[in-house]
Predict the structure.
Amino acid sequence: MKIAVRYFTRGGNTKKLAEAVAAAVGVKAEPVSVPLEEDVDILFLGSSVYAYGVDDAVKVFIDGIQVRIGKVVSFSTAAIIKSTYKQVARLLAAKGIPFAAEEFACRGSFAMLHKGKPDAEDCKRAAEFAKRIVSEECAHEG
Ligand SMILES: Cc1cc2nc3c(=O)[nH]c(=O)nc-3n(C[C@H](O)[C@H](O)[C@H](O)COP(=O)(O)O)c2cc1C
């Protein structure tokens, strides 16, 4: 099974999750500036929200996808909103790229809010989430 991890981060919060996810599924976490070069079964895509929107770099990445993707699994950090899922799903849907109903989301530190987040426990939960997604996909494939 081919798996890739891409993320966008400004302050490092989403990168922490990306590295936990990538280590759990045995691949390298790369920033969205690194395009996908080959088809993947699962793309774990990490993002966060800045003044209500995902960064343009995430939009550019999704728009530039040229390979076949089995499904995108979104993970995100945010300080106030629950997650970036709706925004990312909308961008993917516009490109006809399948995405999972499930996501991983947790708090990310911002100014005085949520100091230390995501923390080790968040990273552990993100890793467990990613492993479960992959093992369910393997079972599904038979
Ligand atoms: C300029 C700026 C604007 C932000 N706007 C929002 C927002 O509108 N809603 C929200 O939930 N979080 C907001 N945040 C918090 C970030 O989503 C949160 O800190 C996130 O974990 C940042 O991820 P990163 O460190 O990977 O860039 C904002 C953060 C920054 C720096």
The CA atoms of residues 62 and 92 lie 7 Å apart. The radius of gyration is 14 Å. The mean pLDDT is 97. The domain at 3-136 is CATH 3.40.50.360 (Rossmann fold).
